[in-house]
Amino acid sequence: MRALLRLPVALYRLGLGGLAGRRLLLLRHTGRVSGHERRTVLEVVERSGGGYVVASGFGPRADWYRNVCAVPEATVVVGRTPLPVTAWPLPRHEGEAVMMRYAERHPAAARLLCRRVMGFDVDGSADDFRAVGRTIPFVRFLPRECA
Predict the structure, then answer these.
(1) pLDDT in tens, 132-145
(2) In what order do the strands lie in the sheet with 46-48?
């Protein structure tokens, strides 16, 4: 199972990140304890201000989330293009708005991710998605020259 979950990272390492399109990005970040480079593939929830917004679907205890909160300088790779970024955790009210916009653009994916991946009991209502947006942490990655 672990190998299957790491497959997207392997695609990026082989220079095949373009196959993932613009809905996924590779996050290269620094481990908060080890200081070593870590790599994680995440879904792009929203593109804004020349940067990208992602959600920590497994909550604030996800390693990548804790790492970028501790060391916000990172690099994202979308397709084959690396971009040095700074991570900015979003306040809950902004996370709520981001989740609402995502659910409007991708209603089926939003329901599936909320139910099956994140474990929320959602029926597809706006109130459900607002609650999810207030619960899970979101991070905006802005290009360093903009941050």
Answers:
(1) 888 899 999 999 87
(2) 37-43, 24-30, 73-78, 81-89, 138-143, 51-55, 46-48
